[in-house]
User: Fold this.
Amino acid sequence: MDKITTRPVLRRLLCTFALLAAGFVDWLTGGSVVVYAIPVVLAAALEGWGGGLAVAALSSAWVFAKSPAQAVTTNVSESLALMLLACLTALATGRERRLRHHYQQVAEQLSGVYEKVQANFEGMKRAERLSAIGQLSAGLAHEIRNPLASISGAAAILARSQNLDPKNTKCLEIITSECERLNGLLTNFLNFARPRPPRLQSVQLEPVLENVLGLASHGVRGKTVRFENKIESGLQPVECDPEQLEQVLLNLMINAIEASPDGGIVTLSAAAEESRIAIGVVDQGHGVAPAHIDRLFDPFFTTKEHGTGLGLPVAHQIVRQMGGSLLAQANTDRGMTFSVVLPAKAEN
Assistant:
């Protein structure tokens, strides 16, 4: 029944069928006008005043056409009775229909509010978790960096010796290389734990996004990945740090390139959504398991073989400091969409 009441075509087909059936019964049995009460009531209940009165008028026309010899007063009274029945039914069901529509709207609003509250709650939990891990990371990074610098310095001193055999030289190269890698990892820790405050300013997005596309083209590394630009024209400026925004988007673009197969398409899009601007990076890669999507912004969680698990958390921190949000969503066919949502600058 819900399917019928929510689809105008089905409602009208049902009313038409009921009217034809009543007319057939009347023609077959020579019955009274009472048989038309059913389609009139049905039409008024489903279509309201207009539908009920239309079916009542059609029924009256058929009664007049079928029995022209019948007394005019009788036909008129029967027609008026059908009209009155349509009005009473529409009046009785109209209030119920309005209440149902109102409750449906309230339910949809409550559902939207619940989703926003749930998203905010998850964001608060993630922010608390990130803050705690960030403080721990900062302390560890400082404690590790000092002995790491000593190891790297000692290796550099030993490397200056002229009496090293090739095996020892190779070992020193490994020590130096791994010290540099660990130092880079510690830098990421510190960027995550204590990202610099954004220097907010009003920024037009088009030049920033074009620059990101130009920089991302250098990260293809032999892949035959194509880029698509779907940037809506006439976008409002956003309040952000352009340098940090470029850093975040370039990180997302490089991730999309690495996830894409040869011949894949990486799309950079931007569109207005109410008072916000949504910037999307879409790839056609293997995607992320549904169970892992909620963990993508957790520190040290990674789906890459040699990843550190800090790229997306750092990006999340940066976007959050600019008053926006970073979202991850699996595409319906394949791949992922990462969206940076920033508030549009209010027009003066």
